[in-house]
Design a protein that fits this description.
The chain has about 60 residues and is an all-alpha fold. The chain has one domain. It contains 2 helices and no strands. Helix 1 packs antiparallel against helix 2. The radius of gyration is 14 Å and the shape is elongated. Keywords: Membrane, Transmembrane, Transmembrane helix. This is DUF2788 domain-containing protein. It comes from Halomonas kalidii.
């Protein structure tokens, strides 16, 4: 099995985990004391959720 097939299978898991991490970061942003770590966590969650699509885009160009 190729890496792309594994990424297609794991795409839902990446999306769910990224969504949870992003929501945790956004709830942390609401607290004024933890604003910047929350933003970083939200961006990290977005990157986790977008990883399969980004990989497919970058793999197609190579």
């Amino acid at each position: 099995m190729s890496l792309q097939l594994y990424l297609e299978i794991a795409g839902y898991a990446f999306n769910l985990i990224g969504l949870v991490v992003c929501l945790a970061g956004l709830t942390l942003v609401q607290r004024t004391r933890h604003r910047w770590p929350g933003y970083l966590l939200a961006v990290g969650g977005f990157l986790i959720a977008a990883f399969p699509a980004l990989y497919q885009m970058l793999a197609a160009t190579a």
